[in-house]
């Protein structure tokens, strides 16, 4: 039962209830049992306004803008050919975009952290490319997007997901795939995901899920942010979205296994109920990208983060081999 529920493409609606004690309780449409009860204990959060449910000690070496910039300086060379086929297939992409309801070619859509345009290629199957904007902080990733024929008519911009250069109430859809894990302050990015669509517009954030297996969890937490499902729901709900839903996704050969985490593990959507900015108030940005950094500290963080990322090149290969040798009726 459990594994069939976890297979990619299953719709999991997480329902948030606010009982009188004020502690949000998350439950699913599958069992209507609480998934977790978020602690309201106060932690001193150093760099990012993560959920209070998450320990703050994990280093997440690449979850910062400068490290992410350099990470993609190199990864952009192999991203489409080596990284995506292992973690983010066309089939997964199309399933993940389905809750974004790209049901009209005239929709105005922004793809945030659009990178090489892999997800944008899924968007322009439904929407006129003239109506699609790609924004990313990496010029190297965007250079790859610019080379793609179906994206030639899209608007392609450099910019920061936490500070989008668009007016409020401008788009019909906000899409961001595989980028939230690098944002130093994901709640700030989700607040932007609320601000830029029009009333009734949908924001769709596709991203990783946190591993439960100890070794995978160790490397995941060294590398970047692998949010828990409840954290996505919390960020969307706090930003003001209504009708917040999670759809689980994953490569076919994982057979629904989620214990190693997934780099693209869920598609989270919310509907903007009112026009204007998000009611959520946040302080100033936590990360000042213009501040000079100690180059040795930076280099050490970058190397450790990149080594941790290498573990996640091996996991899909391991799962692929398991899928080939373990009979289909057995769990893997
Ligand atoms: C894993 S890639 C995903 C690319 C694309 N969305 C896809 O589906 O293939 C992550 C992208 O997020 C971008 N990124 C990371 N932090 C960002 C930020 N703060 N603002 C904008 N883009 C960011 C990176 O440059 C990179 O291109």
Automatic annotation (TrEMBL):
Alphabetical GO biological process terms: methylation
Family statement? Belongs to the class I-like SAM-binding methyltransferase superfamily. MPBQ/MBSQ MT family.
Query: Where do the MPBQ/MBSQ family SAM-binding methyltransferase profile domain residues begin and end?
Result: 60-269
* CDD domains documented for this protein: AdoMet_MTases
The protein's name in its UniProt record: MPBQ/MBSQ family SAM-binding methyltransferase profile domain-containing protein
What Pfam families is this protein classified in? Answer: Methyltransf_11
The transmembrane segments are 296-321
Keyword Transmembrane helix set for record: yes
What does the UniProt keyword field contain?
A: Membrane, Methyltransferase, S-adenosyl-L-methionine, Transferase, Transmembrane, Transmembrane helix
SUPFAM superfamilies given in the database record: S-adenosyl-L-methionine-dependent methyltransferases
Which source organism?
Answer: Carnegiea gigantea
Report residue spans for region: SAM motif I: 109-118
* GO MF terms, alphabetically ordered: 2-methyl-6-phytyl-1,4-benzoquinone methyltransferase activity
Q: Where is this region: SAM motif III?
A: 195-208
């Amino acid at each position: 039962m459990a594994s069939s529920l976890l297979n990619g493409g299953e719709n999991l609606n997480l329902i948030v209830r606010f009982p009188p004690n004020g502690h949000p309780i998350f439950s699913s449409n599958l069992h209507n049992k609480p998934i977790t009860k978020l602690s309201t204990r106060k932690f001193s959060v150093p760099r990012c306004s993560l959920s209070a449910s998450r320990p703050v000690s994990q280093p997440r070496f690449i979850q910062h803008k400068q490290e992410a910039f350099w990470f993609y300086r190199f990864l952009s060379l192999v991203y489409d050919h080596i990284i995506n086929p292992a973690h983010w297939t066309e089939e997964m992409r199309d399933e993940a975009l389905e809750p974004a309801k790209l049901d009209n070619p005239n929709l105005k859509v922004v793809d945030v952290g659009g990178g090489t345009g892999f997800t944008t290629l899924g968007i322009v199957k439904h929407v006129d490319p003239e109506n699609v904007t790609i924004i990313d902080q990496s010029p190297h990733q965007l250079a790859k997007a610019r080379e793609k024929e179906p994206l030639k008519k899209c608007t392609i911009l450099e910019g920061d997901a936490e500070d989008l250069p668009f007016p409020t109430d401008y788009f019909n859809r906000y899409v961001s795939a595989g980028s939230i894990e690098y944002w130093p302050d994901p709640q700030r990015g989700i607040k932007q995901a609320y601000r830029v669509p029009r009333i009734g517009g949908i924001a769709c954030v596709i991203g990783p899920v946190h591993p439960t297996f100890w070794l995978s969890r160790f490397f995941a937490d060294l590398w970047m942010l692998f949010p828990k499902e409840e954290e996505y729901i919390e960020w969307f709900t706090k930003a003001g979205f209504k009708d917040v839903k999670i759809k689980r996704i994953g490569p076919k050969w994982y057979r629904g296994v989620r214990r190693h985490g997934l780099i693209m593990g869920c598609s989270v959507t919310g509907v903007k109920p009112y026009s204007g900015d998000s009611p959520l108030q946040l302080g100033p940005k936590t990360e000042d990208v213009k501040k000079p950094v100690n180059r040795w500290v930076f280099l050490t963080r970058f190397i450790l983060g990149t080594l941790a990322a290498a573990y996640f090149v091996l996991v899909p290969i391991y799962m692929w081999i398991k899928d080939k040798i373990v009979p289909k009726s057995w769990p893997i």
